[in-house]
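Justification of computing resources. Each target in the renewal requires a structure prediction run like the one illustrated here; the chain below, 222 residues long, is used simply to show the kind of job we budget for.
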Amino acid sequence: MPRPRVHDLSCLLDTTERLVADVGADRVTVRELASAAGVPNGTIYHAFGSLGAVLARTWLRAANDFLDLQRELADRAKTGAEDPSAAVVAAALAPAEFAERRSAAARMLLTVERDRLLGPRLPAELADELIGIDARLVSLLVGLSETVWNRRDGAAVEVMTTCVVDLPSALLRGALTGAETRPVPQRLRERLAAAVRAVLTVPPPPLPRRPATTRKQPTTKD
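Resulting C-alpha cells:
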C-alpha cells in the first residue's frame, strides 16, 4: 500500500504563494520554503520534483482561481443587464475582488510573469498548463467582444484587452502590491469603471470589406 501523505500540499502551496508575494519568486529557496511550511526539504522534492515545479503549480492555482472568479463576475453582470459594458466592467474589477479574498495570490499574479516560471527543468505538463492560461483569457476576451460588439476578430479583442488587462494593471497595481494590501478604495474602483466605459465608447475599427467577386460571363462561339 502507498504511504499516506503526511503533509497537506495545499498548505505548502499557500506558504509558497505568501513567500513569493512577500519577497519575489527569485528569492524563494527550498530551504526557506521548507522552514516556513514546517516540512523537511525532501517533502518538496518528493511531492513536486523541483522548486520550479512548486512555483509553477502555485502560480497556476492562483491564475485559474482568478480566471474562474473573473468569468463568474462577468457572467453575473451580463445576466439581465441592459448595458453590455457591465460585463466588461465586472471583469476589469475582478482583481480588486480577488485581492479581498486572496491577497497574497493577487500580489503574486501582478508581480510574477508566467514566462519567468518556464524553464528547461519544468515538467512538460506544467509548461503546457502555464501556456494554456492564455487560452482561457482569450476565451473570456472573445466572449466579451461578442457581447459588446458581436465581433470576435483581433481588433475587437485588442480593445477588450485594454479594458480587462491593461487598465486594471495600470490603475490597481499600486493598491494591490504594497507590503500591506488593503481593499481597493471605492473611488479607485469607480475611476477604473469610468475608464473602461470610456474606452468602449470608441468601437474597434470596422472590418475590412471583402472585395466583390465578379462572375465571368460565359462566351459563345459563332
